[in-house]
Structure prediction request, 539 residues.
Amino acid sequence: MSGIVIKDLDVWFGSGRDRVDAVRSASFEVAQGDSFGLVGESGSGKSTILRALTGLAPDWRGKMQAGGELLGKSRTRSFYKSVQMVFQDPYASLHPRHSVDQVLSETLGLHGFSGIDKRIVNLLDDVGLGSSFRFRYPHQLSGGQRQRVAIARALAPEPQTLLLDEPTSALDVSVQAEILNLLTDLRAARNLTYLMVSHDLAVVGHMCERIAVMRNGEIVEIMSVGDMRAMQPVHEYTKQLLESSRGYVRAELSA
Amino acid sequence: MNLLDVENLWVRFPSRTGVFDAVRGVSFSLGKERLGIVGESGSGKSMTGRAILRLIRKPGIVTADRIAIDGQDIMAMSERQMRTVRGQRISMVMQDPKFSLNPVMTVGEQIMESYALHANATKAETRRKALEMLEAVSIRDPERVFRAYPHEMSGGMGQRIMIAMMLIPDPEILIADEPTSALDVSVQTQVLSILDRLVEARGMGLIFISHDLNLVSSFCDRVLIMYAGRIVEVCRADRLSEAQHPYTRGLLNSLPRLDQPDRRLEVLKRDPVWRNADSVSGML
Ligand SMILES: Nc1ncnc2c1ncn2[C@@H]1O[C@H](COP(=O)(O)OP(=O)(O)OP(=O)(O)O)[C@@H](O)[C@H]1O
Ligand SMILES: Nc1ncnc2c1ncn2[C@@H]1O[C@H](COP(=O)(O)OP(=O)(O)OP(=O)(O)O)[C@@H](O)[C@H]1O
Ligand SMILES: [Mg+2]
Ligand SMILES: [Mg+2]
Prediction:
């Protein structure tokens, strides 16, 4: 029941000549306990799908279901207890004048948890930050440290579903490995559902069973991780994407 | 002469509980090359970049024996001279691109403003140039983006706008802090080839901070590997896979691989000894 269903979803911003049809007739389903990846062109609407689910994109039509609810205009508190999001831009999603401690205790308090002190210590530990970071402010943290605070905050309410927008792109690969292992363990232990955006195809391949490829507002292909590993795409764009994932190839420079 | 020499750079943050040393005595130089910096989250990569531009905020303290561009010591310059350096000679693409754009000005106004500072052009020319730059970084609908505000941009669009803006002054040195982490691989290739051309054709020096080991290894010439505020290893980029330091080895081993699935990723056991070893020199 608490998987994710997206059906014929359109999301747009603005009007007139500045109207952007950011997502056009997107459809996919993620069963509870599954992990689904979104990859594709920069600006193709990946973050917009996640933001529409959490109620941050007001103009949409179609059907969305998550956290056991059929979604309408606004989201309830119980929705945010069961569905949490890690934003692509951790700087913008953390209040500049709230310390790490305030961020976490506020979220825990809002969702009615007790034993907050112990929980904060555990959460910081889980994301590899340790208690020495507890009273720091966002500007006193490196990019990757901020990202880990954002992950800790999303984990705090013990959600059933996590929407992860580039959760490890600001982390070095050893910390990334720790976070991905943590997410894998949590999913196994609590049967969590993940919807994850990443530009790193190896990361998506590691975490997800199925992957949707987006381009210019549309899902051009939904593939299994097996087909992705075997480099067997159907769509031309996916082929291009898989081929350029091998590293930078220096073109012959013509003067 | 090197484009940049950094000798014994320290960045310190005093607090009530003591002083935190974010960068601890690093030395390196930059030629007309692509110099990669990789390393642990929090190891001082961004602070090193900001220190070169003297952009460390209070209460942070920067000291160095020497930071020289073309032989001129930056540490001895007045704040006024520094502004010229920042505006014309060294550009930096910050790690949080949207945060460094002005939220209440449209993207087009911002690009036009920085172009106007550097070129004596008519309004129409400036506008055309700005649209051209958006197209160059593979923005699909430059006209719309020109009129839009930073918060209306996707993560990767913000990064590309920042890169376009930082290239306007035609800098001698570009410090790019995770400039392509939000770009899909195919747009990334297009953006990197622009930087590549500037290094090859115009002799720009590029400091490329990134967590993407495959990318750094295929794109850069040399790599510095940082750990706990120090450089623990320096190597040729195309030899990164043969790196020796246990930290670097650990990084290489913890990469997920598309061709070799693994249920659990290897994690690194950090040895306290790494923190205390002297910084390795990255001077040319
Ligand atoms: N608040 C907004 N107002 C207007 N347009 C918006 C807004 N948010 C997003 N857009 C537009 O919607 C499109 C899709 O953006 P989105 O952030 O979903 O892309 P993305 O696939 O996440 O890209 P990236 O990989 O670069 O983060 C872009 O063209 C963007 O400019
Ligand atoms: N104002 C501050 N006060 C105290 N410590 C700070 C401050 N700003 C940064 N630091 C610390 O300095 C260290 C170096 O930060 P820096 O931003 O250079 O890391 P980084 O290598 O760029 O990491 P990342 O890859 O996560 O971006 C970090 O451990 C950070 O917590
Ligand atoms: Mg996005
Ligand atoms: Mg950084």
User: Anything to note?
Assistant: Chain B has two domains: 4-89+173-182+204-283, 95-170. Residues 95-170 of chain B form one domain. The mean pLDDT of chain B is 94. The longest strand of chain B covers residues 18-30.
